[in-house]
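Re-running Cytochrome c oxidase assembly factor 5 to confirm reproducibility after the cluster update. Everything else is unchanged from the original entry.
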Amino acid sequence: MPKYYEEKEEDGRACAGVREDLRACLLNHDCVLKEGKTPKQCLKEGHCKALQVTFFECKRSMLDNRTRFRGRKGY
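Result of re-run:
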């Protein structure tokens, strides 16, 4: 289950829950653990793609004027 549904320390930054899930996914992936690559390299190879897209949508929604009424995506 994604961490932003569980109780954890409150992070005031936007999209903090999705950011934490993406970070955990990358750090626990075999690409980082077994192959010794950096999380940035694994992200470029396409690992944790769904969380990357969700994080991008959340950050992009911060710039969208319609979110004043709808709220941020992925929050």
